[in-house]
Amino acid sequence: MKKPLIAGNWKMFKTVDEAVTLVQTIKAGVYKVTDCDVVICPPFTALAAVSKILADGPIALGAQNIYPATEGAFTGEISPIMIKNVGCRYVILGHPERRQYFHETDDFINEKVKIALKYSLIPIVCIGETLAQRDNRQFLEVVKGQFDQSFADLTKEDILRLVIAYEPVWAIGTGKTATPEQAEQMHSYIRRLLNEKYGGEVASRVLILYGGSVKPDNIGLLIRKPNVDGALVGGASLKAESFSQLVVLAAEQSKVEARK
Ligand code: PGA
To answer: What is the model's pLDDT at position 81?
Structure first.
């Protein structure tokens, strides 16, 4: 098993003061954990304050979005250079909420992925189907389309520098998690797509996270699946206790696997 990655997506929650308190408590809760990588993605307004607290520590900072330009007259947008400058190593791209509420297309996400890589940010690129698409049994086709377009023109080296998050839309914030079997089916399918396009070596190294109602009581079974390399966590990342527990549980599982 690869070292798991647990990423917290705080979405549009937490003022600067609340963010500072939360990140300090998380830091204290996970400081002993070495077998799991951790990323925290606060809202833009809290990045600078959280960055100071995480400086020189093992927890990485991420942003939740960027605009695909270096700078310019794009009122209300934030560039890759700006988040880099504030200390971000990661950026979430193509989150289903951005696709749904802000009409982001795969082509636009592809532009963002390219510019993020250009500025040495690690994109966490989300793909996943809606409930209707799952019910119509189109989910593999939908995810393949998102995969092909969001990663268009990327080289093997590019792919090795990004993280994929499978986020079934029907499982986000709904309390309905994909079963470990449903997650594994899609993760192994994504791994197969990686293999077909970029070869086995690349396919085996890319981290594929699962996202959608991940909590301490379901992480264990999810992360035990061979192709689930970690989680992108929304709701449960807003409480220090549940987020720290997720990190500890993921790290324990990776130790168990290492001993096998
Ligand atoms: P959730 O969100 O854990 O609250 O379902 C996951 C996500 O949107 O990344």
So the answer is: 98
Nearest protein Cα to ligand 1, atom 7: 234
> For residue 17, how far is its CA from the centre of ligand 1 (angstroms)?
22
Average pLDDT for 117-141:
96
Domain boundaries of the chain, sorted by first residue: 5-259
The matching CATH number, chosen from 3.20.20.70, 3.30.70.141, 3.40.640.10, 3.10.20.30, for 5-259 is 3.20.20.70
Mutate to test the pocket of ligand 1, among 172, 209, 237 (most ligand atoms within 8 A of CB): 172
pTM of the model: 0.97
Pocket of ligand 1 (CB under 6 A): 9, 167, 172-173, 211-214, 232-236
CA distance 251 to 229: 11
Segments of 112-228 assigned E as strands: 122-127, 163-166, 208-211
Q: What is the mean pLDDT of residues 165-190?
A: 93
C-beta separation of 30 from 248 below 8 A: yes
Mean predicted confidence (pLDDT) in 192-218: 97
Cα-based distances in Å from 193 to 147, 188, 200: 8, 9, 10
Pocket test for ligand 1, best of 97, 100, 213 (most atoms within 8 A of CB): 213
Query: 193 is written with which tokens?
Result: 């797509």
pLDDT of residue 165: 98
Active-site residue set: 95, 167
Q: What mean pLDDT value characterizes the chain?
A: 96
Q: Is the pLDDT confidence value at 176 over 90? A: no
